[in-house]
Amino acid sequence: MRQALLAARAAAARGEVPVGAVLVRDGQLIASGGNAPIAGNDPTAHAEIEVLRQAARALGNYRLEGCTLYVTLEPCAMCAGAMLNARLARVVFGARDPKTGAAGSVLDLFAQPALNHQTALAGGVLADACGALLQAFFKARRGGKASPLRQDAVRAPEGAFAALADREGALPSLPPAPASRFVSDLPTLAGLRLHYLDAGAARAPRTWLCLHDFALWSHQWRHWVPVFLAAGDRVIAPDLIGFGRSDKPKKEAAHHWLWHRRVLLELAQRLDLQGVIVAGQGWGGMLGLLLPMAAPARYQGCVMLDAGLPHADDALPDFSDAYATRVRQIARAAAPVGMDCATHAALQAPFPDAGHQAALRARQRLFPQAGDGDPQGAALLRQAHAFWRAQRRGRSLWLASGGNAAAARAFKATAQAPELLAASASGWLAESQEGAGALLPDAALAARALRFFT
Ligand SMILES: [Zn+2]
């Protein structure tokens, strides 16, 4: 049962309801598995089914006679049926399930004298530990939803995002809801609630920290997430404060690029991210390039889409102007020419009205400014350039789009492309790739990034 608990904890780490199971024969562990309906979009992917499948494959027999299955939660009717079909000798479960338990709580499929195969049953083994794991999981999930909203902030209605999922129809779906996480107790957040996607195994060797562009949100990585998950990697994609499903301070003065950087550093520390590859587009890329210098050991490289670090000592262009078009697109009632309705809906969802758009209006504060107005920012930019010049450990892929986007032009004007090319011997690679600046970067681009790091 302790082994089953380990499998349950692993399921919780993946955002699944924490139920784990193992199958044992003659004192030998044959199979071990956790609940996984969400990851596989499979309502039958209960831990017990997973373990029965694994064990039958391992033993080369669909009958599992002489085997004992341990599971942390009382089996449901589906699993109880499968266990009887497998002719298990014995089933041992942990916590009772008063809602769907089919081993005595709601019904008892193991006590049907009419069935010709009888499976021995024992319940309540390590019941407290098994139950506590489930309770902690559901409490954490409720806690995320219940976090109070600060008076000086707004939160886009969840309905806007639910409707979006409906409109997307055939598009590959976002990671399912439990991969959506909230955090509000990072020091810099001061009670604001930050939303982020967390998908894949917590201890995956690689974590892609995906940072959205200005006026976009974690949704923009929807085509990337499945590619990285399929490779066994973890993906963290935050909605920066003021964007997406994160809280939005109403005052423009509350928004500042250096503040976002601090939030991201605290998030990486809180989640103890390791082996991080920062993937960033435009504005998000700029913020991402400012992270590794604060904790170099966490990071192994970066993928930049139309992003670069401005040079503090150059005359900085007005980056915010480059995004004016996108802000106008958000305000439009209908999708602009060349943009499909689903993408337009995704662009608009987090910004239903002017009250939710302070970050859009504050865009001058979200980029480094020219001149002496921002000495702290200028110092940080210089420090970051020095860091990347000296950086020899990581690998970095720098992708620029064909140059049709105004944002791309603004960034390319100041991006350190010549430096990247010069340093290619140390693993830097810069290239131009069509589609790098697309609102929703596609799966082919993700595959390109994955190849570079594999
Ligand atoms: Zn079940």
Question: What can you see in these coordinates?
Answer:
The protein is α/β, with parallel strands linked by helices and 454 residues long. An 8-stranded mixed sheet has the order 7-8-10-9-12-13-14-15. Helix 1 runs parallel beside helix 5. The protein starts with a helix and ends with a helix. About 6% of the residues have low confidence. Zinc ion (ZN) binds next to helix 4.
| Largest beta-sheet characterization | 8 strands, mixed
Task: Look at the structure and give the mean pLDDT.
Answer: 84
- Helix/strand-derived class? alpha/beta
The rough form would be described as elongated
State the helix count. Answer: 17
Bound molecules: zinc ion
Based on the structure, what is the oligomeric state of the protein chains? single chain
Percent in helix = 25-40%
* Gyration radius, rounded: 25 Å
Number of strands: 15
* Percent of residues in β-strands: 15-25%
End-to-end CA span:
37 Å
Strand order of the largest sheet: 7-8-10-9-12-13-14-15
